[in-house]
Write a structure and sequence with these properties.
InterPro entries: Peptide/Ni-bd (IPR030678), SBP_5 (IPR039424), SBP_5_dom (IPR000914)
Shape: globular
Structural class: alpha+beta
Number of strands: 18
Strand content: 15-25%
CATH topology of the largest domain: Dipeptide-binding Protein, domain 3
Number of domains: 2
Order of helices and strands: HEEEEHEEHEEEHEHEHHEEHEHEHHHEEE
Mean pLDDT: 93
Number of helices: 12
CATH superfamily of the largest domain: Dipeptide-binding Protein, Domain 3
Protein name: ABC transporter substrate-binding protein
Helix content: 25-40%
Pfam families: SBP_bac_5
């Protein structure tokens, strides 16, 4: 869907293209419930209160012919800790990585981190061959991954070519290679499926699904929330909690679900949706701020066009907010052209489709990134002591049942501030042409093309 923004650097969101296209691999994988599974590491154990020792899989070779050992893994993780900006999965965490033997490494954190194995499953912590990491801090994954496919060419924002890696540690892939096109326009992606020019198609817009043969796509419930972020930085319009509350009162989600999403979405009850099975156990909300009348206050509302529904969502919100008394300027661009301005707080409100367990399979990482004072993706500029305290409580809890309860408590504190207004939870439509087998339908959006993915004539 979206073209690379950082030349497929694993330290950026491009990392998820590396994993979805079978280029790069991580030390740890996750099962459907978010529990850790072996990846490039076959086992791990705690070492003292702040350390974990990982034993590496034998016989792993990179696309450049070099072998995986502890020195290579230590180099990859150490480079991630020094990257600028820091990978989102490391927001608020400091890692120290060292060799414990030829095939063992130790990862230590400043504070105990019971979720470190899950954290190391993030594609942003993929392990590449040493040659991928340049002295100037950039990373070139071409010919440097360990996955079933070798990146042979990246054509800027247009596409990429990949060949099968015959020496993959788990055996060669069934497909001889991949031709990839980056197509931000949702209608064009759907057309590629209809015309047979695309075999696997990401994120088909809900409006296009009715035009497709039902046997060519699958609707996948996603842990992805469409949220309105309000810029709560002091001095801005929504530094006023009462005006944030006025936005909350003005929004009616029903026409958004029925319109742009054509009922292929669920009305949000919180930041975490029904794809996270335990999210319905959340405590009741308390302490909502009463709304303040806008009196014609001018605001900028922004979103991006890569997800076809979002401009329509923003247009509906524009109408609702103007009826409530705001004067709204709407800004829509491609994501690659708007992300930097959004992170710098140049908009009063921003509509974002956000995966809530993308990085570690654990929502605490997403909540910290988006809502902690030092969060690396804090679009709303939120800095609230109670929120930060609740996030620390959740992140330090090792018992999974208690951790989930504390995550929901942190969610309640975030929603209390009014800096984020969750609207709906998406169901993503993925297209698969007749004869395509083995493509992943991954709610975390980490996997797509796998070793078993292939096409046969039908």
């Amino acid at each position: 869907m979206q073209p690379p923004r950082s030349a497929l650097s694993p330290f950026s969101d491009d990392a998820f293209k590396l994993s979805r296209l079978g280029i790069a691999e991580t030390l740890v994988n996750l099962d459907a419930e978010g529990n850790p599974l072996p990846g490039l590491a076959v086992s791990w154990r705690p070492v003292g209160p702040t350390g974990w020792e990982f034993s590496l899989r034998p016989g792993v070779r990179f696309h450049d012919g070099t072998s995986l050992d502890a020195a290579v893994a230590v180099n990859a993780l150490s480079r991630a800790t020094r990257a600028q900006p820091k990978p989102r999965i490391l927001d608020g965490f400091e890692l120290a990585v060292s060799e414990a033997g030829p095939d063992r490494l130790v990862v230590r954190t400043a504070e105990p981190d019971p979720m470190l194995p899950q954290r190391l499953s993030s594609p942003q912590l993929s392990v590449l061959a040493t040659a991928a990491y340049r002295q100037d801090g950039t990373v070139d994954p071409a010919g440097a991954g360990s996955g079933p496919f070798v990146l042979t060419e990246l054509r800027g924002s247009e596409g990429a070519s990949l060949d099968r890696f015959d020496e993959h540690w788990n055996g060669p892939a069934k497909a001889p290679g991949l031709d990839v096109s980056f197509v931000p326009d949702g209608s064009a992606r759907a057309a590629a499926l209809r015309t047979g020019t695309g075999d696997i198609v990401e994120a088909i817009p809900a409006s296009q699904a009715a035009l497709l043969d039902p046997g060519t796509f699958t609707e996948v419930p996603m842990p992805r929330t469409n949220t309105l972020y309000l810029n709560s930085r002091p001095g801005g319009v929504f530094g006023d909690a009462g005006l944030r509350a006025a936005v909350r009162e003005a929004i009616d989600v029903a026409p958004i679900v029925a319109g742009p999403y054509e009922k292929r979405a669920d009305v949000a009850q919180g930041l975490l949706g029904p794809a996270i099975s335990w999210s319905g156990q959340r405590p009741p909300r308390t302490g909502a701020t009463p709304p303040t009348a806008p009196h014609g206050q001018r605001i900028t509302l922004a979103t991006f066009s890569d997800r076809a529904e979002l401009p329509e969502v923003a247009a509906i919100l524009e109408q609702q907010l103007e009826r409530a008394g705001f004067q709204v300027e709407l800004v829509v661009r491609e994501y690659s052209q708007i992300e930097a301005d959004a992170l710098e707080g140049r908009f009063d409100a921003f509509v974002l489709s956000r995966a809530t367990v993308l990085d570690s399979g654990d929502p605490a990482a997403y909540l910290r990134s988006d809502f902690a004072c030092d969060g690396g993706f804090n679009l709303s500029g939120l800095c609230d002591a109670a929120v930060d305290a609740a996030l620390r409580e959740a992140e330090s809890e090792g018992d999974m049942r208690a951790r989930r309860a504390k995550i929901l408590q942190a969610e309640r504190e975030i929603l209390r501030t009014g800096a984020a207004i969750p609207m709906l939870h998406e169901r993503v439509v993925q297209g698969n042409a007749p004869g395509v087998h083995g493509a992943a339908f991954d709610p975390r959006e980490r996997l797509l093309v796998q070793r078993d993915t292939h096409k046969v004539a039908e």
